[in-house]
């Protein structure tokens, strides 16, 4: 699968063809990196074709050369031999600085410059490309909106004043600033807590749905690869491509013993990572707005036979999930925000949903979509999905 | 997550942006003590000088004209030497952290270290026998004696910048020079300025030795005071040098405070 002949499957794997694509394809031909004084090359003659507009995950053990390979794409590491094409253009001999301005680069914790404001950080590449000030300012605001940060609030803050997750969002915004066709991400979500990571992953999927960039994403977390990737490349030492396929195909038929080991023993449970919350049946909860008359809501919920009510704020975002009994003690629906409220996105995986439930010690999660609350998922749904996969595997 | 941090503590957040965080305010208060002490010292000296009963010999050195000339000479020595120290120390410090030149760092540091480890008076006299007596030799000696802290702090400051930030800069298409100018140097400023302040204070003190090779300065008061057993001269010289050093140290601190990178 390592040959460029992996291409024909591209059309099928990209899924629905209506998806917007603004990226270009990347092709590697015999890309090799040797370091002086080392017998074996760090990256040994890699051929790879990454279709335009797809998110391709590089996974493999540490030291396998996946990060070196990534850094050769923007020539932070200069290849010893081989050729790299963006689209039809051979970029191997191009001026590295100019090339990098056309390739977004995101590293762990965002790599934000601590002495510059969020806006300055995001506007760096457009500034280098000599955009005028007003255009940069407008672009910065658009990008902050895109990554879910209110520009009014965050524009003039310094990175230190942001949480890890917010810094990472700004890092993504900065990489997208000059609208590059290609985005390279080097373990970007490695340093944030699991819940934040899951939200960042959901956001990335949403952004990618909107933009259709070509994204190359290095991770050591196979679950992350399955969740985010249109395709996964599994590497062994020397950046040998062991398998290059869709997550479903890799889980269903690992190419070698090595991949089976890497995927891990819990492959059945890993199937949970293939199923999105939006693909299973959700329950429709009773939704109440903060400030509504509590007695009304209680009546409505009891009529529907519901024990719990999802409370949303003015913008329709869930803020708490009180029981009917709790609500009947209040006169109006309270506007307090429950920081531990378990929320997942329609794009989240069942695995994420289960994690979130466990982290919040609750038997269910509120699911949000583009227009606020999309439903509620309970732990039984996850269990049923596990049972189903198990039956499939055995049958 | 977004909302959580957003509402966390707007007060501290905005005040940090304004450059007046609680720690910042305390730092300013600390910065106010030193000039007050210096001013009090200057005032005390002026009062003593105007009221004291001075002999002719004392008058010759402590007359306002002679006194201000000595102070000016001293400042001149300090400033000229400081400019040369900065012009050498910072660029060389930068070069020694770049690429292949990194290998030369231990050698250069060793040379700079020799300059500082040599007793200052010896350095002055040796250089004078080589370059001749006077202002120029004094400046050369002062530079040799004080370049080390600037050089070393420039290197340490630059080496202390997170490598990942440098890589992030290069990765987004900044040239090596742009990364140095926009990322590395701004972040290294506090450490570099600390070295500059150390060098300045050293310079003010060491410039008193210039008088031995006819370089002028407040050292003249001190040596004359010792030679003629005139405590008034000796103490005046010592006090004025101390006040000058404290004043320059304070100015250095103010610059450090103002020039430190924002966002910390």
The radius of gyration over CA of chain B amounts to 23 Å
The counted number of beta strands of chain A is 16
Strand order of the largest sheet of chain A: 6-7-8-3-9-10
Number of continuous helical runs of chain B: 12
Largest interface: A-B, 44 and 29 residues
DSSP strand count of chain B: 0
Tell me about this structure.
The complex is a heterodimer of chains A (395) and B (264). Chain A contains 17 helices and 16 strands. In chain A, strand 14, helix 16 and strand 15 form a beta-alpha-beta unit. In chain A, strands 6-7-8-3-9-10 form a 6-stranded mixed beta sheet, with helices on both faces. In chain A, 48% of the residues are buried. With 395 residues, chain A is an alpha/beta fold. The longest helix of chain A is centred in the middle third of the chain and has 18 residues, at 194-211. By secondary structure, chain B is an all-alpha fold. Helices cover 80% and strands 0% of the residues of chain B. Chain B contains 12 helices and no strands. In chain B, helix 7 crosses helix 8 and helix 8 (135-159) crosses helix 10. Chain B starts with a helix and ends in a 5-residue tail after the last helix. The chains are: A alpha/beta (395), B mainly alpha (264). The interface between A and B is large, with 44 and 29 residues.
Core attributes:
heterodimer; A: about 400 residues; alpha/beta; 6-stranded mixed β-sheet; 4-stranded antiparallel β-sheet; about 35% helix; about 20% strand; B: about 260 residues; mainly alpha; about 0% strand; flat
In short:
The complex is a heterodimer of chains A (395) and B (264). With 395 residues, chain A is α/β, with parallel strands linked by helices.
Blueprint of the fold:
The complex is a heterodimer of chains A (395) and B (264).
Chain A: H1 10-13, E1 26-33, E2 43-50, E3 55-59, H2 66-73, E4 81-86, E5 89-90, H3 96-100, E6 103-107, H4 118-122, H5 124-128, H6 133-146, H7 151-154, H8 164-176, E7 182-186, H9 194-211, E8 214-218, H10 222-228, E9 231-236, E10 240-245, H11 247-252, H12 257-263, H13 267-274, E11 286-289, H14 294-304, E12 309-312, E13 318-320, H15 324-328, E14 343-345, H16 350-360, E15 364-369, E16 372-378, H17 379-394
Parallel strand pairs in A: 3-8, 3-9, 6-7, 7-8, 11-12, 14-15
Antiparallel strand pairs in A: 1-2, 1-4, 4-5, 9-10, 12-13, 15-16
Chain B: H1 2-6, H2 10-17, H3 22-51, H4 56-62, H5 64-95, H6 105-117, H7 120-131, H8 135-159, H9 163-171, H10 176-206, H11 219-227, H12 231-259
